[in-house]
Design goal:
Blueprint (H helix, E strand, L loop, with lengths): L2 H14 L4 H14 L4 H17 L4 H16 L5 H18 L4 H15 L2 H14 L3 H11 L3 H5 L5
Helix pairs in contact: 2-3, 2-4, 3-4, 4-5, 4-6, 5-6, 6-7, 6-8, 7-8
Length: 160
């Protein structure tokens, strides 16, 4: 995560939600382990994101990152797909109940809709929401370009 992105995320969080320090610390540890993409590190990431949620059940980014971690664990075949995708979808939906403007949650929800539900139209709509809202658009752009029926327009929104 680059410094500019971190400052944008912190500003967004502070503007919308008073962050519980213990929750944010666990969240950052979860992000650290989630980025390693190994079975052990993803398991630790899930634990830390759950610790963040336990410290602050209204901390939507922790649910969104938990959802993404379950998505990566499923895609990497570290956990069974039915279990992982159900947990990813549940965490993403919970994040969106708390913060309906959380692009990262839309990104994971779109991926689940595409690969599990075969809801291609819904997935495309959620990828577009993720692109519009995400503080980390490179992730959403990858998903949208990978699964969109019109990847050229997704990669270059000015062509829409």
């Amino acid at each position: 995560m680059d410094l500019n992105h971190r400052h944008q995320q912190q500003a967004r969080l502070s503007a919308s939600h008073a962050v519980v320090p213990e929750a944010h610390e666990a969240f950052l540890k979860g992000k650290h382990f989630a980025n390693r993409l190994s079975p052990d590190s993803l398991e630790k990431a899930v634990r830390y994101f759950n610790d963040a949620i336990k410290a602050d059940p209204t901390y939507a980014p922790a649910y969104a990152e938990l959802a993404e971690t379950y998505g990566w664990a499923t895609a990497s075949q570290f956990i069974p797909s039915q279990e992982g995708l159900a947990k990813a979808k549940s965490a993403a939906l919970h994040a969106l109940e708390i913060d309906p403007n959380l692009g990262e949650a839309y990104n994971t929800l779109a991926w689940v809709k595409y690969v599990h539900d075969w809801d291609f139209e819904g997935a495309d709509q959620d990828f577009e929401r993720a692109l519009a809202l995400s503080t980390a658009p490179r992730i959403s752009t990858f998903g949208a370009a990978t699964f969109s029926p019109n990847p050229d327009a997704t990669m270059n929104p000015s062509t829409k």
